[in-house]
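Hi R.,

As promised on Friday, here is the backbone we talked about, encoded as structure tokens. Could you run it through your design pipeline when you get a chance and send me back a sequence?
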């Protein structure tokens, strides 16, 4: 197999004024590959439970992350940790196109362990910065992306992922979210853990603050300072992350909405589209090839 990404003729080209999202999910590694084009507003602030590793292909891609505004141009590498709040929008009518890999934490931890003679890191790993000008890494990301997004052989996929791991290794360090958690108030950490444990339940702020040993105003301030969102917005993001996992496994959107705590399917759909730029049914169809009849961006 060729060691280079497909030619531009094989890749979907931006269409003026049209937004689109293409998603695939590798069944062996669990890694998702997403290629998308957006004009204007792309998605609201949200986070993922995966490591995002991608490259801007075309246009000016603007997004907020780590309490700063970032501008990514063609060829620049974007690295985002699990739990990091980010959004996205285009500066001009031409929009932007990007390719992104959603790496599972287990895959990245194993990658770090191989680089450290089999010793797994004591804490979650992270990235030294959000944007990088690293041509070698950008090439490795593009190669791994196309080996997963347009599958060839298992050997080609494995070699491309090994190349990605080698290119990522110099930029891996302590997780930003881990450092933020250590600096956060104890009440905020307790609240975060409780939201993870009871994401499908309708917790009130009074109950949450009582369980965390702080008044509701102190808790809200500490939580926002530590995690970048107030508790309710953070809970919505937890539910969206859980919904993605269930949809990718083939569960029906209505069942997913009820299981993870949304009021109904339309409630899930509104939040999902705002965060990820496509409907739950479209995401499920792209990941599973289940014929929902709704497998297009709307």
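Update: got your reply. Pasting your designed sequence below so it's all in one thread:
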């Amino acid at each position: 197999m060729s060691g280079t990404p497909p030619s531009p003729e094989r890749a979907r080209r931006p269409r003026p004024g049209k937004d689109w999202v293409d998603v695939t999910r590798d069944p062996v590694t669990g890694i998702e590959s997403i290629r998308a084009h957006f004009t204007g507003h792309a998605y609201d602030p949200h986070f993922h439970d995966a490591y995002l590793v991608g490259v801007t292909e075309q246009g000016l891609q603007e997004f907020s992350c780590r309490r700063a505004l970032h501008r990514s141009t063609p060829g620049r590498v974007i690295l985002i940790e699990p739990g990091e709040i980010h959004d996205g929008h285009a500066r001009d009518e031409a929009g932007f196109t990007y390719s992104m890999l959603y790496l599972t934490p287990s895959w990245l931890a194993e990658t770090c362990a191989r680089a450290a003679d089999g010793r797994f890191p004591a804490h979650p790993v992270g990235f030294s910065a959000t944007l990088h000008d690293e041509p070698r890494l950008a090439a490795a990301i593009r190669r791994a992306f196309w080996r997963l997004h347009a599958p060839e052989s298992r050997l080609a996929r494995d070699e491309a992922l090994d190349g990605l791991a080698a290119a990522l290794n110099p930029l891996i360090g302590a997780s930003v979210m881990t450092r933020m958690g250590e600096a956060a108030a104890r009440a905020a950490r307790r609240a975060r853990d409780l939201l993870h444990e009871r994401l499908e339940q309708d917790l009130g702020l009074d109950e949450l603050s009582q369980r965390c040993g702080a008044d509701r105003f102190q808790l809200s301030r500490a939580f926002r300072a530590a995690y970048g969102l107030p508790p309710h917005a953070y809970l919505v993001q937890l539910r969206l992350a859980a919904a993605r996992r269930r949809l990718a496994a083939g569960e029906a959107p209505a069942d997913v909405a009820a299981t993870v705590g949304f009021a109904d399917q339309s409630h899930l759909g509104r939040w999902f589209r705002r965060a990820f730029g496509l409907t739950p049914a479209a995401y499920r169809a792209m990941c599973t090839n289940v014929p929902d009849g709704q497998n297009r961006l709307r």
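One thing I noticed while checking it: Residues 259 and 298 are 24 Å apart (CA to CA).

Thanks again,
M.
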